[in-house]
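User: Structure please.
Assistant: Input sequence and predicted structure:
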Amino acid sequence: MNSPSTPPSDQGEGLTTPVSTHYGMADFARVRKFDAHVHLNVDDPALVQLALEDGFELMTINVDAPDFTPIAGQRAIAIAMADAYPGEVHWSTSFSMSGFGQPGWTERVTEDLATADAEGARAVKFWKDIGMGAEDPEGHLVMLDHPELMAVAEQARALGLALIGHQGEPHNCWLPLEEMTTENDRRYFSRRPQYHMYLHPELPGHDDLIAMRDRFLTALPGLRFVGAHLGSLEHDVDKLGAFLDRFPDATVDMSSRMSQLQFQSLQDRERVRDFFIRYQDRVLYGTDLSFHPSADPVKFCRAAHGIWTSDWRYLATDESQRVNALDADVPGLALPRDVIDKIYYGNAVRVFELADSADDDSAASVGESVPRR
């Protein structure tokens, strides 16, 4: 099989077809890919089957979100899917902040983390309720650099698990609806005012949460950290680059933040393109596709395929497409093939230590329910 970045070049005896520096839409299904941020919250293989058809492996991330399947159920589904599709489905464990600060909480969480590692987890998720809702027994907001959470992170580092951190929200979250840069953020926060921080000035600001995350990472050198949702620095690729420069063990996933990148590339396409080329080893492709029990599998998979192909068109090709979140036509970045191969696959293999999966040629190529938040 040809490698992803080496397309066939012969076109008749003695003739050679010039090799494009970037992929096209025709390459989508055959190139090995990895969606590093999905949520399989239902025991249904529909999304996994679609992923196989479209050339993806999946990282399903457990999280103690109020509108998700209970966390124990998510874990059971993740283990079952990983057992049924070894090499194609991987998973991240998580924990509940319920009971935080009570005797035995830290011991229970660290022991469970060791169990999850033995069961095949590749990472642990620290969710946004840390710093944005969870409280200690005295009613104080729990911040990421609390000693008990540091102990959990130390356990993750000792076990060799990556830590996926969702701290903060998009910068739009601290703006009034009419000043937000993307329609998808306006829609999301108008429907979920409890997460719209502009309405909650008593809670930490965006800069406070980013500083909290950075203190946490400074205290944990060597921790493999994945900043979910572009590390909540999606609004400014220069600030995101500065974060990656400061923390060499950190990477970020792109989940639910494509329209913010596209907003910036409408203003300065080369600035965004240059960011991806410079930090090609530090970014993971991801979507935040969330497959819930209430979803119609056929409609969900149709929407998921549309998201995967739309993102590929933007990142990998030079084609323009209409982006409804911006009400604008957005040209593709046409990133070089080797850059796409890293962002879409190689970086995830390294960060989640999936070398065995990468060596398995059998997975290399194939022939309202999809929230992007």
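The chain has one domain: 25-363.
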